[in-house]
Amino acid sequence: MKKNENDAESNDGSTGEQIVLISKSGGGHQVDRNMLLRTSGYFHGLANSGMRDAHYRELTLECLTDESLIEVKDYLSKLSTNVMENGGPHLKSLNEVEAGLDGAFYLLINDMIDGYIELLLKHLDESTCIRVLDIANKHVLINQVVKKVIKYMSKNFKEISERSKTLLSPDEMFYLVASEEINADSEIEIFNLIIKWISEDQSRKCFAEKLLTEVRYNLMTTNEKQKYTAILHDLNLNISCSKDKDSNISRTVGMLFVIGSTEKKHQAKSFFNILPVYDFVEASTISGDGTEPSPIKFKPSRRKQPPFDSFCYTACVVDNCLYLIREETRNNMISRESFVYNPVDAVWSKCPNMHLPRRDFYLGGLSGHLYAVSGRTRHGLTPTVEKYVPSENRWYMVEPIPLAVTSLAGCVCNGMMFVSGGADEEFFAQNQVYRYDPSCNKWFSRAPMLTARFSHVMTCTENKIFVVGGKTEAYESEPFDFLKEEIMDGEMYDVESDQWSSVLKLKLPVCDLPSITINNFLYIFHDTSCLLIKLNLGKYLKEKKTSNVSSSLSVQDRNANNNNDNLVTNEAMEQNSPCVGAHPDDDCQILTFMNHNGKTWFDCRYFGVMLMSDV
């Protein structure tokens, strides 16, 4: 049998017994027999089986090419002479890496497999991602490589060519579109990619329903929904497109924006500060090595401020438009003015005034409409509720809420609006919960919270509602001498069972603070202190909680904890926040954020997500 002349004698400095590996084309490659026996599961099994092939000077490997055996020889040679590079093998070409993996997997050389997987991932870029996937799939490297490549494609979604994306296999495509973290400008881009992928090959149509079910249709605008409805109709596909399911933004698409002031002296300066949702989530992720994350920096936008003195207002995003309800003017007059901002055209417009001037009310979106619930007028509290219909540019009065309160919180769940808590006319905190059904214009009482609270945060994800923080009231010796105590905990409500349970403890007070829920994490912004609370709600979705949690925890006990927490919190703020940073598995993490120039003064009034034009 023909041997490679270069392999006639050992060139690797080894003094051990040699064996020649013969490729399928007849090329011979001499390696150290003992090293092969020690590292190769294939050769070790062959030797233990007693087969004569293991004792010959030559071993024919009809499935391996010369290129593969050259890589095997190179690896074993360096192993024999202890010249393996620190930090792993040196960089090789993609062809060499593929050949090396072929040889390593066939001969079952596990350490070589690990090293060449590392080399394979070093080649990952926008132009090679499909090739890397092909190599990984050949050896079923799903967790080691495929999922990492899909994560890379998710991160570089905008840079990777459409052609590369349409070459993905069905499983790879599913991994991509099911990912919560995709660096895309809008959800419609993901929908369009699926349609293009299906259109490339008619045999792929059988995967359409599975893929299209992963699209977050509730993140689309009305115009986008009209487009996808027409496309689904043409494809004769009946996909459940749930809308207003919950408060959770279940994909990192679009632009996260903060409205408010970044300068103490000029409250209207830099009204819009923005950051892509994907970048925000990445920046707020704590690494497993304990490294303290850098402050999250928002970028100023040149977009115009609202056409009024932005002193006191409530905000909400509905159908990719930002609505501002002016609550109070500079001369302390309660207002009923409303404005809308279109981020695509970058234009502010005046909306009709509400029927009733109010402040400290809940403002939320439901089914493309805007709702203003309860609150305070200049004559006292009001139970009235108003609905704004954008297509008609008109406010309507709807069914009043059963109990008039101020500083209540709310959210949307399964096409219904839920509101909770608030303070009554005598400033007593309330624990009642109401559900509004827009189909019948009725309010329904639900199980009350375990703790009465107002000025709290309320959100919903995966059929569970969470309330966090807020304040309660406690009488002192004199009538109407109140202490507004912060509540340093949270509760979870199961919509199906109509039951509440206590779920978390806070590290910082949460009162009248802007918040947003992304991928089952609740982010709460401590405006002027520039501290960011990140709560892992997903942890509690996985745990089965019972509802027999007693609400008899005394206000005194909770307040004692509050006082200690507040002492730590204030000290932390004064000492550059040593409480910042946490273990990545901590369900309550404290991060920092700031404006673009690194200043730590940031008066945040509202956070939301919109699709914005390049202005």
UniProtKB/TrEMBL annotation:
Keywords: Kelch repeat, Repeat. Residues 129-229 form the BACK domain. This is BACK domain-containing protein. Gene3D superfamilies: 1.25.40.420, Kelch-type beta propeller, Potassium Channel Kv1.1, Chain A.
